[in-house]
Amino acid sequence: MAIISLTISAILFFFIVPLTNLIFIYLSNILLLMYQRNNEVKADPSSDVWDSARKTIARFWDIYARIWHGYEVHGVENIPEGPGILVYYHGALPVDYLYFLSRLFLWKNRLCLSVADNFVFRLPGLKLLLEVMRVMPGTREECLIALKNGHLVSISPGGVREALFSDESYQLMWGNRKGFAQIALDAKVPIIPMYTENVREGYRTLKERRFLRQLYENTRLPIFPPYGGLPVKFRTYIGEPIPYDPNITTEELAEKVCKGNFLFSFQTKTAIQTLISKHQTIPGSIWKALLQRFDKRRK
Q1: What is the second-level CATH architecture of the domain 2-294?
Q2: Residue 94 half-sphere exposure, CB side, CA atoms within 13 Å?
Q3: 176 backbone dihedrals φ, ψ, rounded to 5°
């Protein structure tokens, strides 16, 4: 019985915070449903009518971020006033990204449209939350329309694969994904790199095994959950924008589209790797990340 009790305690310890985050996400959706019902809101979920509810949810997540992770954001001045594509490293549990969205909305009253994996839209009970927070599947057409309307769009090229199989070495796992670069070229917008320090020390996944990788590649579902949730220090760093070159002609762009696509993608990957190299202890250390909660100096 003692062994069983210890096993259950260990499981609860490792998974209680990720489960709590999931509960908070569903509570956010319930709050929106209550707001919709009490105020008889019939407006499109993407409209500004929902800003009051958005701000309430953002305040909740921001308070949680401050308390649990001492969350900080550096480099907000690098985000352009107009459209752009924010490209970020995907942690095992992207709660840092939720923190960033909340802080950005509270500071700038600005929504960042988020491109998410298709499985997210199959999760039950989150439809209204996804619509209000402007989460989208991210087809090329949707992204181009959003950018042409002046919005900021965020994409993690590594996606679920990076979430599951990257580790404390913070290796980017983009494969051949360069679609975001082509969209940036087509929309003539800059790309802004972003990364959160210690995100892998906060939440981790099982070490990669061949059968786990094959299982994911066959199902494309995050079938094994992240664990951890320790109150390590989180700092999100936003790098300098990689600008679109306005001097290139349509003809030149057409001729160089493949080369330009590769170059833009390479520059973005290098920019994120530079942020990681500058601000992250490699390999990541949970103990150092915890001790940083007591270090008030900005890196």
Answers
A1: 3-Layer(aba) Sandwich (3.40)
A2: 26
A3: -105, 20
Task: Please write the tens of the pLDDT for every residue from 171-220.
Answer: 999 888 888 888 998 999 999 999 999 999 999 988 767 788 888 888 88
Q: Domain boundaries in the chain? A: 2-294
* Tens digits of residue pLDDT in 72-130: 999 999 999 999 999 999 999 999 999 999 999 999 999 999 999 999 999 999 999 99
**Length of the chain as a residue count:** 299
Q: How far, CA to CA in Å, does 64 sit from each of 61, 72, 102, 103, 198?
A: 5, 12, 11, 11, 17
Name residue, tokens 């306005």: 246
Query: Which sequence positions are flagged as catalytic?
Result: 90
Predicted structure pTM score = 0.90
CA distances from 186 to 61, 147, 204 (A): 34, 10, 36
Cα–Cα distances (Å) from 65 to 29, 81, 276, 280, in that order, read 18, 25, 21, 19
